[in-house]
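[PROTEIN RECORD]
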Amino acid sequence: MAVRHRLIHAAPQHVWAVLADGSRYADWVVGTSDSHVARGPWPELGSAIEYTVRIGPWTGSGTTVVRRVDAPAELELEVDSGPVGTARVAIEVRPWGAESLVIVDEHPLQGIGGALHNAVFDALIQLRHRDMLRRLANVVEEHAGAPTRERA
C-alpha cells in the first residue's frame, strides 16, 4: 500500500487552494511538465486535467479525473497515463494545529501499473510521493507566505 504523509506549514485552506487550482497541477505533481483543465470546473466531480510528461526525449500525455471530492478535506483522482495504466490517488488534508497533515494514498488500477503492482512497485511510488509532497509543501507555503522548510 503506497500511503505517505507530510506536515505542511500552512492552514488547510491554503493547501486546498493549491489543490483546487488546476493550473498549478504541474507545479506539484512529479514528472508533469505542463497541465490544463480539460473538462469542467476543477475540482468538481467529473472535471478533468490533461497533462504532459517529459522524460528525456520522450513525451507522453494523460488525463486526471476527479472521482470524489469533499472540499476542503478530500480529493480522490483517477490518473490515466495511457499505456502505463490508471491509478487511484486519494489526497486527504487534515488540520494539524495551525498546519496541515496531507496524506496521499495511491493504488494502481489497470494497465502495466496494475499488473506489476507489488511491494517493490509501492516502494517506487513512495519515493515519488515523497518528492510530490515536498513540491506541494513548497508551493503551498509560498502561496500562504509561510517559510518553506526543505524536508524529505
Remarks:
- Strands lie at 2-8, 32-39, 48-55, 58-70, 74-80, 86-96, 99-110.
- The mean pLDDT is 87.
- The longest strand covers residues 58-70.
